[in-house]
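Hello forum,

I keep getting stuck at the same step: I have a sequence, I want structure tokens, and every attempt I make locally crashes halfway through. Rather than fight my setup again tonight, could one of you with a working pipeline run this one for me? It's a single chain of 129 residues.
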Amino acid sequence: MVQLTPADATLADTEQVIRRFPFRIGRSAGNDCRIERSGVWDQHAVVELELGRPTLIACSSGTLLVNGETATRHILKSGDLVVVGSVRWFVSLTPAKQTTAAFPQAAFWLAFAALFAAQVFAIYRLTDQ
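Reply #2:
Ran it on my machine without issues. Output:
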């Protein structure tokens, strides 16, 4: 999960938690994150997963600053400072919650035990004759 926390307390309404990709940022109503502030274009940027890593990509008309430098594409890391128009965000990456593997493991061991029991039964039946 990617979280964008505003660097300015006055922009608390711009905090974003990204759970699905691609995540579009801009002024227009079709974006996942709609920001109507100065310097933000209709289609400003998008966050996509590339090789399992969240990547911030500038759209054709939007410019981005990441850690004080202009960027068109940047792999996001915790602690990055991203500037989109007049909005500044700190990036934090939280680890994905690991789902429990108890059910698949139990199913495997039950199937294994059933196979073992079937083989023992088959051996018993063959030696009984």
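The longest strand covers residues 87-93. If your local run keeps crashing, start a new thread with the error log.
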